Amino acid sequence: MLKRSGFKKGGTFRTLKSTTGLLGASGAKIKAHSPKPKRTKNKLPHKGYKVPDWFRSIPLGSHGNSPTQKRYWKVISAFTRQRDFNKYHGKCVSCGKRLESWQDGQGAHYRRYATCNSYFKFHPDNVALSCAYCNQNEDGVIGHSFGEELKRRYGEKHLDWIEKENNKWRGVKLEDHIMVGHVEKLLEDNPWFVLP
Ligand SMILES: [Zn+2]
What is the pTM of this model? Predict the structure, then answer.
């Protein structure tokens, strides 16, 4: 297995990295660019997978190409906003303005959603709590501040890590059972997290 460069030193982030390391329903890590499964009798073991009712009761978010993806985004947005609101005193990642509550902020992508690959579109370490103004005005100054703050929070190599990690997920198809499994793992590992 590839050594993941994203597992960085430091307090709760170690836990966070491992909990958000894109885990399958079984808890097994998914390899980016894994070879195509052999066409034997188990060629589609998750065919007919039914998204559980608790997941289908999550409201639809603003990103995604299917109801499960939209719900997955709703979860990741709430997760990153709750995480950052508590850890960084409610401050917008880009301008530092204090928000009244996590619901007042938005889950902003550093690398834009549209240019992220597969599961990396939903990676919590490419998303941070932002005020609406900064999230909707992606000029160079705001983007630069966003990046500088991510480096301060995660370490100097974090922006390189985002690029490398994103590249690993090119061409990987999003699957419902994996997205649901990831949310189960987030809930299990982060008892403070309240589902939207
Ligand atoms: Zn801001």
Answer: 0.79
